[in-house]
Amino acid sequence: MNKVPPNAEHLTDIDQIYRRLSGQDPGRPGEWVRRRVQAYAAQQAAERAVRSSAKTQDGLSTTGTMPALRAAPAAAVTAIEQPAGKPWLIPAIVGGVAVVAAVGFFVVPKLMGASGESSKAPPVAATQAEISHAPIEEPPPPPQASGPDAMEAPASAQTSAGAGDADGTQPAATANSIPPSAGANSLTHASESAASPAVMTAAQAPAHAPASSATGTAARGSSATGSAAAQSASAQTAAATAHSQPATTPVTSRAGAPTEPGAAAASAPGKTVAGSRQLVAPQSQSPMSPPVVRTARATKQPPVAQTTPSTSDQSGSAAPAARSTPAAATATSKAALAPDTSAATNASLATPASAATGASVGTAPATPPPTASQPAPAVSRPASGAPAATAASPPASVAATATAAPTPAGSSDAFWTAAKSGDMTGLQAAFDSHVDVNSLSPSGESALILAIQHTHLDAVRALLAHGANPNTPDSRGLTAIRAARVHNNYPILQALQHSGK
Amino acid sequence: MNTTEENDEILIGRYARGDAAAFDQLYRRHELRVWRYLERNVGDQDTSDDLLQDVWLALARNAVSLESVTRFRTRLFTLAHDRMVQTRRDRASKGIPAPSRQPKSDESSNTLSRALGQLGGDERDAYLLHIEGQLSIGEIAEITESPIDTVESRLWVARAKLHELLGEKS
Hints:
The complex is a heterodimer.
Chain A: H1 8-24, H2 31-62, H3 65-81, H4 89-114, H5 123-133, H6 147-152, H7 154-162, H8 170-176, H9 183-190, H10 195-204, H11 212-225, H12 231-244, H13 252-256, H14 261-267, H15 269-285, H16 289-296, H17 304-312, H18 326-337, H19 340-349, H20 352-363, H21 370-373, H22 375-392, H23 395-404, H24 408-421, H25 424-432, H26 447-453, H27 457-465, H28 480-486, H29 490-499
Chain B: H1 2-16, H2 20-42, H3 45-61, H4 72-94, H5 107-117, H6 121-131, H7 137-144, H8 148-167
Helix pairs in contact in B: 1-2, 2-3, 2-4, 3-4, 5-8, 6-8, 7-8
């Protein structure tokens, strides 16, 4: 190798030298290689071309009817677009259109006039009017004249309705035949059955005069939309709505508009009430006690679904006296959604007043026995003031305090104070009282972080030995490992790493 | 270069759909570079011709799968590299000595051939992929299945040696 390493310019020069020498090299691949490769490539290309054409033919054969169908319109279009050779074509087309229009203008009104005045009115109004005054004893209509069929031919329905036939008014009569009391029940089946079966079923039932507007709804929805594309959907909608409507409810907009859950629910009040009762039911079983107790005890199975409906239950008819107030429910849901430590902290930090209000509803049962619930707030509140005295007092008194106040809150305060001051005796006493080593102090710091911040290596080791998690964040999201890094305390960081968490 | 690369991919796509002329165009464009890469690695024209044929026949056979290849040239030199390495292994396993580099007709070609012959196999391979295949260090690392640092080192060593062998003479 070079004794003096070449620089980048020299290396770039080498590439230039290589290219120059390589360009002077007359060496070329054999001509036979080219011929053979090109022949093979051409063969492969031909095979691929054959395969692709075969695929195309297969595709055309599967859709063989389509070209034939497309041929006629295409021919018509070309004939229209190229009138140069056939000058008679355009006048012929125009004449044909004029004839059709004339027939439409002159013949159809005569036919319609024969059916009477009622046919001149809007079809739905005519249908409604006649149905409302129509005799109930109509013969049952033929089943093939279902809702969609009638919708497809509103004009014929109109004319025949004028004569009082059941032909055009079939959907109306069928929808009429449903008594209002059956609406709730029929709603459950309306979505299952298509439009025509629903109408047919109703048509077979004895017809009754009320609910004529529902009839009008079906007919109007169909005749108003008129488009073939919307017929199926609107027919189903109209049929379902007509079944569920009370007697004289104007349903025109509902029939024309897409079905809405709210409208459907409104049309079936009985079902709505039943649904709300179903929602209320689990909550009304035991609105306060067991779930809230578990929540306040920071178990991770809070029945949130039970507490949540309690607020939405206001409109329901379940016993309101047994229900918790919204504020209490909110507090309960907060406690339910809070993590273990925060829930415990909230419970321990609750003032007696709040315990009297909120806890009487939801939190008071959290403490297991009634006797134990009494001292709990009393101890927890003075405990917040305790740290000063405890910190000033010797370790023995801290231990005595911890043992004297066996509640978690009191022992935790001593525990955090001991961790902060590096008091191993106090820590040991806290460990003996089974304190939660990962719990956060009122200021939101864990004992481990407090020990790290005050560089108490022994306390850190003791906490780690008793299960302190260096990854548990404090209220600001600071973990013990990060705190050790921030303080650049290598021995503590090493101890954290050796803890293996 | 981008246009060329796009054209490469377009051409192989056209050939995959049955256009033989597209393949001819591709072949003419890359034939010489691939052959030089092979010939300067193995040092034997006949073997290089055979390898060149194998490479392009494989391309013609698998053109449909190459439609989705982002860079045709990378795929082309990957095939050439694999076949060259396989030939080298076959020879080594059969105990066949590597063919001596054939003397060229002109002096400059002989000089280049001798200089390349004095490089190590991996260094020569990396340098030829870089200079003939116009591939990046990352692509060479991908083709040779080596770390990028290793490829950089091989390129540096190859250039240093060539500088020593060719720089003074040229």
